[in-house]
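Quick one, probably user error.
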């Protein structure tokens, strides 16, 4: 629907948000798709594996959000090859890419967990996963989830791993040592977490 001046400022802001979110999603898919095809040619993979990999990216886009296209491409191709009954060593994919093995394994693990759940993870799943990795108590998890629920509109369309890390950091009263640990566990940077925390109303 075209938004006109007479619709008011609220509808114009909503339309702008929709355009930015949609276009960002499409740009990411194009970049990941190009990397998938490049690695497929280099590693000599069948087309069926690439199609399965593309389906995984679309189905679990939020799971892989925030990682570089080359990391996502290797992780989903490696996962898709296993699912197709034609597993290949990770090295076969890494030799065709600049992706870091550590980050590829992290994305592949997240995909595996998401597939096991059979659904898109909820924001609570992200919070619990990060909290378990950095040994935070249940009380902090509960406070972080409540914080995210109150800020749902502000965080719509944002990287869920970054949002979950920011909420846990705020719920832990901004412990400096924890910030770095959360960034590592979420596969992001301390700067991104600080920015996300700054957008939240405590």
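Nope, works fine. Designed sequence:
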């Amino acid at each position: 629907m075209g938004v006109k001046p007479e619709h008011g400022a609220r509808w114009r802001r909503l339309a702008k948000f929709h355009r930015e979110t949609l276009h960002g999603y499409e740009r990411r898919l194009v970049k990941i798709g190009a990397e998938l095809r490049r690695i497929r040619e280099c590693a000599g993979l069948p087309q069926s594996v690439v199609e399965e990999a593309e389906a995984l990216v679309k189905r679990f886009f939020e799971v892989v959000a925030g990682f570089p296209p080359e990391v996502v491409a290797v992780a989903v191709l490696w996962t898709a090859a296993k699912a197709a009954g034609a597993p290949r060593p990770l090295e076969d994919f890494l030799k065709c890419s600049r992706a870091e093995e550590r980050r590829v394994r992290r994305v592949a693990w997240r995909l595996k967990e998401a597939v096991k759940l059979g659904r898109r993870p909820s924001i609570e799943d992200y919070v619990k996963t990060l909290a378990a990795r950095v040994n935070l108590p249940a009380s902090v998890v509960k406070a972080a989830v409540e914080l995210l629920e109150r800020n749902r509109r502000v965080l719509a369309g944002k990287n869920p791993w970054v949002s979950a890390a920011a909420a846990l950091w705020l719920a832990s009263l901004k412990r400096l040592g924890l910030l770095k640990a959360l960034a590592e566990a979420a596969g992001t940077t301390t700067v991104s977490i600080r920015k996300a925390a700054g957008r939240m109303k405590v």
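The chain has two domains: 5-117, 123-199.
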